[in-house]
């Protein structure tokens, strides 16, 4: 696959539904590598196509991403099919495994096809956290409380994403489901042993890595029995466990450096540098426009040879025109099936 020589290691967000002059300059910075879109950047499919086109006109090689997993975390809503949370699929299908995996493939394809139709490269999905029944920030975002089942169901969802031409990003490595605290608001501490984490939380990650998972996002969680740094800033977790032990060869994206779970590292320059040194290929800076410039200047020094090679597979493939997608029989059947599931859940 041809590499993009100008791709940098920083992904950041935008303030509105169109580009501001200062954002145009930031996108031109050689350390810029991608844009993550939020609900504030979205009004309609037509508007977001125009926004993405304006970004592509400046830097066609940039990766464009969004958090669009379904349930509580779906940034584009008006005009898009409303997706249920991950836990809803197993709840709807009960003891019908073939129906369940088919439904998940359909949902993965639908999510990815709609995003590709507006030229978004990928969604930060699926969640591979195993729900332990104590984490409100994960909860129904997890496919299952059983590690093997969580891996199987996530694999089906990813197969659908791949059919639509979209790479997948598993999160939050090595697992956020075992802590009650929200890393947006604090730095969670997980005291469990490495053996316990391996036998439970790492199972879905191992299954998806073996199947060719393209991207992973580590958690802003300290697993104190293993390392004193959060996983996204830990070479122990990223280089030793993820790359050497699990054999992951894809791209590692930091979680948002603006989250409270990242503040232990110091200012934004320190956060970006530590995450990149630990093994992240791309760092995210969200909801703090004043920090973008600092992260870009810090990351300018990063060695990008291997990073670019790992980031290239994240590019979207086989895009379809939005109107053509909505006119297709495949989209109509898939959208109706998922709408019915979401409606039944809402009614219940």
Which features does this protein show?
two-stranded antiparallel ribbon; 12% strand; TIM Barrel; 12 strands; eight-stranded parallel beta sheet; alpha/beta; 348 residues; 13 helices; globular; single chain
Total number of β-strand segments? Answer: 12
CATH topology: TIM Barrel
Note poorly predicted spans.
none
**Quick one: biggest sheet?**
8 strands, parallel
| Strand and helix order | EHEHEEEHHEHEEHHEEHEHEHHHH
CATH level 4 superfamily = Glycoside hydrolase, family 3, N-terminal domain
What is the strand arrangement across the widest sheet?
A: 6-3-2-1-12-11-9-7
For the record, the CATH architecture stands as Alpha-Beta Barrel
Number of helices: 13
Question: What amount of the residues lies in strands?
Answer: 5-15%
| Cα distance spanning the termini | 47 Å
What average pLDDT do the residues reach?
Answer: 93
Quickly describe the structure:
With 348 residues, the chain is of the alpha/beta class.
List the helices and strands and how they pair.
Blueprint: E1 10-12, H1 21-27, E2 32-37, H2 45-58, E3 63-66, E4 68-70, E5 73-74, H3 87-93, H4 97-116, E6 122-123, H5 147-163, E7 169-173, E8 189-190, H6 194-199, H7 202-210, E9 215-218, E10 222-223, H8 235-245, E11 251-256, H9 268-278, E12 282-285, H10 289-299, H11 305-311, H12 322-327, H13 329-347
Parallel strand pairs: 1-2, 1-12, 2-3, 3-6, 7-9, 8-10, 9-11, 11-12
Antiparallel strand pairs: 4-5
Helix pairs in contact: 3-4, 4-5, 4-13, 5-7, 9-10
